[in-house]
Amino acid sequence: MGQLTLEKITKTFGTFEAVRSVSLDVKEGEFMVFVGPSGCGKSTLLRMIAGLENTSGGDIVIDGKRVNDLAPVKRGIAMVFQSYALYPHMSVYENIAFPLRVEGAPEAEIRRKVDEAARILHLETRMNQKPGNLSGGQRQRVAIGRAIVREPKIFLFDEPLSNLDAALRADMRIELTRLHKQLGSTMIYVTHDQVEAMTMADRIVVLNGGIIAQVGAPLELYHKPQNVFVAGFIGNP
Ligand code: ADP
Ligand code: MG
């Protein structure tokens, strides 16, 4: 569960091709990192996988099923954004519970899942607080908790650590790697931070100008960059 295939995905905005015939296989349980310079199409690709943006062409296949026409909530995907997107007037508990309430889940199930997420993310003592009283790292944990309770097959992260300072980013890199091991879910993680890519990824996808410049394990990209762009961006020229 959580195998993703992209088949010749494109996205055009007017006459501009932001994503150009991208094909990719993401394995079940894989931690896949998308890197590349600003504007190369990382967020657009992620938003198409999530269903927040239509594709202009190509197929998105999850566990053997084409999902292009499925609503975001039906895809078994949860997305975490850089900006947290929490509800300021709700407690941490209610923020994490929110997607389950929308689904109309029973109270006992909500409590069980929210408590479990709180335990995984070390938020037990924060449950009655409002997001405004939390640090940036804690807020991002709440946003991750809200994704966890949905028990998605695939987690999508769009630069989740880029609002945090360097020390917190280092802590959260370790936390997210631990979370991936613990949950075993497929994770697709967008960043422009090479350290995050090199330390967290099973495989890295290097994007440039809407196309894939190279896909490979971190050390493979580092030691055997396929072209000058990859060498300059991540490799060891
Ligand atoms: P990244 O996340 O890699 O920085 P994006 O996926 O956000 O890049 O954007 C890729 C390209 O598509 C950029 O040139 C951006 O300006 C353009 N783009 C993204 N969204 C839109 C939109 N809604 N309308 C027009 N152009 C867009
Ligand atoms: Mg982006």
From TrEMBL:
Residues 4-234 form the ABC transporter domain. Keywords: ATP-binding, Cell inner membrane, Cell membrane, Membrane, Nucleotide-binding, Transport. One of its GO terms (molecular function) is ATP binding. This is ABC transporter ATP-binding protein. Belongs to the ABC transporter superfamily. It comes from Halodurantibacterium flavum.
